[in-house]
Design a protein that fits this description.
Helix content: 25-40%
Distance between the termini: 60 Å
Radius of gyration: 19 Å
Strand content: 15-25%
Length: 258
Amino acid sequence: MTTLPISVFIIARDEADRIGRTIDSVKDWVDEVIVIDSGSSDDTVAVSESLGARVVFNAWRGYGPQKVFGEGLCRNDWLLNLDADEEISPELGVEIREWFEKGPPPEAAFTLPILPLYPFQDAGHRWTAFHHPVRLYRKSMAGFKDSPVHDSVVVREGRAGHLKGMVIHRSFRSLTHHVEKANEVSSLRAQDLFRKNRNPSAFSLLLIPILAFLKSYFLRREFVNGVDGIVVSHMYAFQRFIRLAKTRELHRLAQKGK
């Protein structure tokens, strides 16, 4: 199979059990795969190298800075960013190859729908692919922001196209892992909100978790997943609540001089 002039880069740490699926989904049709490892204690490096990826160490400085560093390692103008818990579906792989059949597309970037898939789900429903970030883009015309918390691509010039094939996102190994990850990420988000002097009110602490559940269950269409959708929606509401609660805690500690 002819490879496309695309560089794939993946940030990772302790992802030996998942990153193989990510690399396997692209390695046969892209020019290079680069893994930016921030100090794995498991076999992430060995697994990645065994599948043909180039592994580069970079100490962790936040999501945005890590991805900006990864962009600088890539030799192609077209970049595809994946997380170590994601994979390109076969349908999306075909779609991307079709776009590049006659040469690099004129677009500056493409958005890709992200389909969340939990370990207790056999298959996700297309309707729940609510998130469509830019992940395939030309680095001469777009790139990641260097925010340590919010990692998103900014298209500086040109227009973004939209692809229909799915990126499968296996974010959580279990509900226990989901809680652990929510605890970690909510602490980072709370610190960011605290720096911006956002102090949640009692009303927001009461109302936002309820609205978050409804948003997940109805607007993100988790209702199509039955009982699984109820579980996922409660977890989403918990994430929103604990972020606000931690932000409020930081403000109260600051008031006490701690």
